[in-house]
Write a structure and sequence with these properties.
With 410 residues, the protein is α/β, with parallel strands linked by helices. It has two domains: 263 residues, Spore Coat Polysaccharide Biosynthesis Protein SpsA, Chain A (Alpha-Beta Complex); 123 residues, no CATH class. The protein is built from 15 helices and nine strands. A nine-stranded mixed beta sheet has the order 1-4-3-2-5-7-6-8-9, sandwiched between helices. Helix 1 packs across helix 4. The longest helix is centred in the last third of the chain and has 23 residues. 48% of the residues are buried. The mean pLDDT is 92.
């Protein structure tokens, strides 16, 4: 190993801290100064009485992310921690964070994305303050464009809510807070795997918090999330497999819990109401691409679909296949039953889990296109209400999931 690799740099030799702000990164040299500066302002303004530290958990970035972070002037001390050379993955950064939180005996941890352009000092307040008043997991609530976060809107939110009975609107938000006492739980969890070591980490943390009866709240961030947005139909593979695969694999672990959850309850919102007028940036959607990918799925994956879906769900898919783009509709109850079929058969029917996930992507593109068409003329608030209706449909369809699960798992 070359001499230049240093796993940790702790220039002020910090051994103990009550509060940690963590910025996970890989190749963010051009972006990391901004969230670091804003985090520091937030700590000075709202947590001046608290011993705090800003930690950059990095994947040994070759672009001088480390230097950019350590050279950013801050009043709070800083620590840089890297994964071993060659070891990437957001989750692996978090593993380093959990261990450091335990070592520092920290009470409160706030995490913010390294590519955030919209972070203000208030974000540190909103995500951090609830951790000092009885909450142990803080999920973010921000205004997002109706086509930003389609994995959240179409899968992660409705599935998490229907399964575990908690309405957490952004279960893979990327900016959140958790109490120090959750860190050892995360470190010791037997459910850690390759997907969690990468993009599966956010949904994994939220799901484990819910299943450990953590006191959860949502913090209203006051501004839209502005980061590097992507067309929902562009390159998705690894992220989709890791996030959605983690939702499905955790279902096995937590089945005794979710099989008994009948309906969902709201989650406390910390901060002010949704009266914000600041608009999030536009997200443009290539509809033709979504429809083409949906159609191509039939050529590539129909043999897998026939094995994992019930005949009724598969037949309904064939019915919507020939709709023209203008009238294309993928009904929510069909989407819910389809996801429940995939969840029940995941890893059970002799099909590789990655192959199952890959076969789900074109179906997700079809469902996303249907959502785009349905909400085209809607305000953000109306689109939000449409997502809430979808979630209610998922909850009403849950008996179907339970029946399918018991058929597969006995």
């Amino acid at each position: 190993m070359p001499d230049s690799f240093e796993r940790e740099m702790n220039p002020e030799n910090i051994k103990k801290a009550e509060m940690v702000v963590c910025i996970p990164s890989y190749k963010e040299a051009d972006a990391i100064r901004y969230p670091t500066t804003q985090a520091d302002k937030g700590l000075q303004k709202y947590f001046s009485e608290v011993e705090s530290v800003i930690i950059n958990c990095d994947n040994n970035s070759p672009d001088h992310t480390r230097e950019a972070f350590l050279e950013t002037p801050t009043q709070a001390p800083k620590i840089y921690i890297s994964t071993e050379p060659g070891l990437k993955g957001k989750g692996n950064n978090f593993k380093n964070l959990f261990q450091k939180v335990v070592d520092l005996k920290a009470k409160a941890v706030v995490v913010v994305d390294a590519d955030l352009k919209s972070i203000t000092p208030e974000w540190i307040k909103h995500l951090g303050e609830p951790l000092f008043s009885g909450f142990s997991y803080v999920a973010p609530l921000y205004i997002r464009h109706k086509y930003d976060g389609t994995i959240t809107n179409g899968i992660a939110y409705p599935m998490t809510r229907a399964l575990y009975g908690r309405r957490v609107r952004q279960p893979i938000g990327g900016d959140f807070g958790f109490s120090g006492e959750l860190a050892p739980l995360y470190l010791e969890s037997k459910t850690w795997n390759e997907a969690v070591a990468n993009f599966g980490i956010d949904i994994w943390m939220t799901t484990i918090a819910i299943n450990n009866k953590a006191q959860i709240c949502q913090a209203f961030m006051g501004r839209p999330k502005i980061h590097r947005t992507k067309d929902p139909g562009s390159d998705l593979g690894p992220m989709f497999r890791q996030v959605v695969g983690t939702i499905f694999s955790l279902m096995k672990e937590f089945a005794p819990y979710w099989l008994n959850v009948k309906y969902s309850r709201p989650t406390a919102i910390y901060g002010f109401g949704l009266g914000e007028t600041e608009m999030p940036p536009e997200v443009s959607v290539n509809r033709e691409n979504l429809l083409n990918q949906f159609h191509e799925g039939f050529e590539t994956y129909s043999d897998i679909w026939e094995r994992i879906l019930t005949p009724d769900v598969y037949r309904k898919l064939l019915e919507i296949k020939d709709m023209k783009q203008q009238e294309f509709s993928f009904p929510t109850d069909l989407w819910a039953r389809l996801l429940f079929d995939v969840a029940a058969s995941y890893g059970e029917v002799g099909i590789e889990e990655d192959a199952t996930m890959d076969s789900l992507i074109p179906l997700y593109f079809g469902r996303t296109l249907s959502f785009v068409i349905r909400t085209e003329k809607m305000s953000m608030q109306q689109a939000e209400e449409a997502i809430e209706e979808d979630c209610a449909t998922f909850e009403m369809t849950k008996p179907y999931l339970i029946q399918r699960w018991q058929e597969q798992h006995g």
